Description:
Blueprint: E1 2-4, H1 18-30, E2 35-39, H2 44-49, E3 54-65, E4 82-85, H3 91-101, H4 108-115, E5 120-127, E6 130-141, E7 144-152, H5 155-168, E8 176-182, E9 195-206, E10 218-220
Parallel strand pairs: 1-2, 7-8
Antiparallel strand pairs: 2-9, 3-8, 3-9, 4-5, 5-6, 6-7, 7-10
Amino acid sequence: MTFVANYAVLPAYRGNGVGRKVWTAVMERAGDVNVILDAVPDMLDWYMRNGFPVKGDTTSYYHVTVTSEMLVPTPVPATSCSVEPLDDQLWPGVVRLDQLTYPSPGREPILRAFLVGDGIHTLVARAAGHVVGFGSIHKMWEGHFGLRCVLAQDAHTADQLIRGLLSDLNLRVGNVVHFPLVGDAAPPGVLALGAVEHVITVTRLYSKHLIPIRHKNIWIPVSDIA
Length: 226
Ligand SMILES: CC(C)(COP(=O)(O)OP(=O)(O)OC[C@H]1O[C@@H](n2cnc3c(N)ncnc32)[C@H](O)[C@@H]1OP(=O)(O)O)[C@@H](O)C(=O)NCCC(=O)NCCS
């Protein structure tokens, strides 16, 4: 499979056939594989007429402004899992949970790009020795943070991870958290206590066939190719 991550022409050059040339060249290079893209609403019909007949999930992008209610610590129930920073020992369990959710082969490099790197902070939830969730955040620019993903076995674990991520990066009232949600899911856990702004909804399209995703564990998607 291959993923078309961007398709854009400078505004001053639009409407003159430049986009069509770029599009044709990209599709020729993609070859005879399943091509995936995320369509903005304006372009949805155009893509469906131009080789992307298969509709998948929608993804909505959110901004949430941090409120004081979000920063109140909650008591941790005795049965809860432990939450700790990602390390090499936890990595195989993280890959396993990701594979349960996104069955496509070759996910590990994508996962590594999402979870490991300069400025990325990743937490892993464990219960009875097993990885039962993970989540990751990074600072985008002053006062703005991107929740890159949260996968977890249940809502409580997801909330513990999100609270841990916000607290580890020392978020303050007025900061903004950016994150995507799949389908019509509501902002999970503590994020529902923020001032929520929905930004845009894109629709995943496929050129050949839909790639199924197991939604059960997804609170914030490990975006891109799934
Ligand atoms: C989409 C984009 C790359 C097209 O570039 P362009 O140089 O204007 O395109 P062209 O003049 O070659 O037109 C190509 C086709 O796109 C269609 N198109 C262009 N803008 C469109 C829009 N906003 N909505 C629907 N169709 C559009 C044209 O009607 C044309 O269709 P046709 O070939 O069937 O006649 C350009 O408008 C753009 O950069 N838009 C903003 C970024 C964006 O939304 N990208 C898509 C993200 S999913």
